[in-house]
Amino acid sequence: MLFYSEIMDPIHGYIPFTDSEKAVIDTEPFQRLHRLRQLGMGFYVYPSATHTRYTHSVGAMHLAGLAGERLLNLGLIDGDTQQILRMAALLHDLGHGPFSHSSESVLQQTTGFTHEDMTIKLVNESVLGDVLESLGFNKKSLSEFAVGRKPYSGGQEYLTKIIAGQVDVDKMDFLNRDSYFTGVPYGKVDHRRLIEGLLVKSDGVAINMNALYALEQFIIARYEMFKAVYYHRTVRAAEIMFDRILRHTAVDLGIHQGMSVDEYLKLDDGYVWSKLQELVRSEKLNKNALGLFKMLNSRQLLKSCYEVVRHEIDPQSRIFNNEKVLYALVDSIAEKAKVDPETVFIDTPTLPTIPLNNIVKDGFGLLVYDEKTKSEYDASHISPLTNALSQYMVVLRVYTFANQRETVATAAKSIFTSELISEKVSY
């Protein structure tokens, strides 16, 4: 590949990019990623965690290039496919909303689009798509490949796993990057060893047995980062508050069903925060949202007063994924504690804590290949560590305001340990 220039990155060092990549990076939809924090409200706990979706996307592109180079050396792809891999990784996070995952729930419920859906929409309906077409790419196919839904224009299915799979370039980059910027050491991943151990077998992507220790490190790193950062109780407190504020102000912020790409592109961190401040000054902010925004602005965060952590094989079947159940539980807790239901919050974060796209029966779903015996194994069958971490960590917390913490804690404990709940819920 012929590279145009380089970007200096604290994680990967100098990252080279091609003319085509420069043309995409310089478009307004991609430049918007400069204005989206990677870890949303994470900076309330880790002050240096202000890195952006832009740097993560460039990092993922770089790792996709290394994976492409590995496949190129194995004779499985050509240089054009390597460029497509890099471009797909570059675009994979294009559709994120303000403060990244912090706004995802509200945006999905209000617009009907996930951030992957919005990535596809932005690639196909913005100037970026025109740039891609002028460079010879099929924008529709590339947009679907970028979010791991389909291989590019009839390409091999296994290539999607490099962009969005069990051990993909997205996860390899964000674990290292988030670890670095939070200062938490647990997320460091030996991405080079994983990529050098990349193989393609009959059932798709596999990892060479020689890189098993790097795979184990990767799985442990993801698990520990969820405990220390992504599911940190104080980070989640800020996330809950921001989510509730957005629910009250979606209309004022211009978030609606069928919003255009131009409307969506306005939604970056700075725009949303300044708009909320404007609503405060004009006294147009909902009373509940106003209180939460003032608290968030001065880091007066909700307090966790009840917590359950369990490990499950399939969290998708959990009754707590049902919003009607959550609302009923909030009402029950509030009634027992004799407080306003608006002051009780139940948090059940949904990001998967283990690197699986689909539940796999009796296994982790990632192959390890032993070149000596020419045998393939599920990672959990040959690695005690992998087997031990082959379940999802499921967290449920109840939050409230500091002045009623003890009262709500007592009520929550009573509700969640009652005969009714224990009979109907897997807790």
SSE layout and pairing:
Elements: E1 5-9, E2 13-17, H1 19-25, H2 28-31, H3 53-73, H4 79-91, H5 104-111, H6 115-125, H7 127-134, H8 139-146, H9 158-163, H10 169-182, H11 191-196, E3 198-201, E4 204-208, H12 212-230, H13 233-249, H14 261-265, H15 269-281, H16 287-297, E5 303-312, H17 323-337, E6 344-347, E7 367-370, E8 375-378, H18 379-382, H19 384-388, E9 392-400, H20 405-416, H21 419-424
Parallel strand pairs: 4-7
Antiparallel strand pairs: 1-2, 3-4, 5-9, 6-9, 7-8
Helix pairs in contact: 3-4, 3-10, 4-8, 6-7, 6-8, 10-12, 13-16, 17-20
Walk me through this protein's architecture.
- Strands 3-4-7-8 form a four-stranded mixed sheet. A three-stranded antiparallel sheet has the order 5-9-6.
- 50% of the residues lie in helices and 12% in strands.
- The C terminus is likely disordered.
- The protein has 427 residues and is an alpha+beta fold.
- The termini are far apart.
- Helix 6 packs across helix 7.
- It has two domains: 230 residues, Hypothetical protein af1432 (Orthogonal Bundle); 90 residues, Alpha-Beta Plaits.
- It is globular, with a radius of gyration of 22 Å.
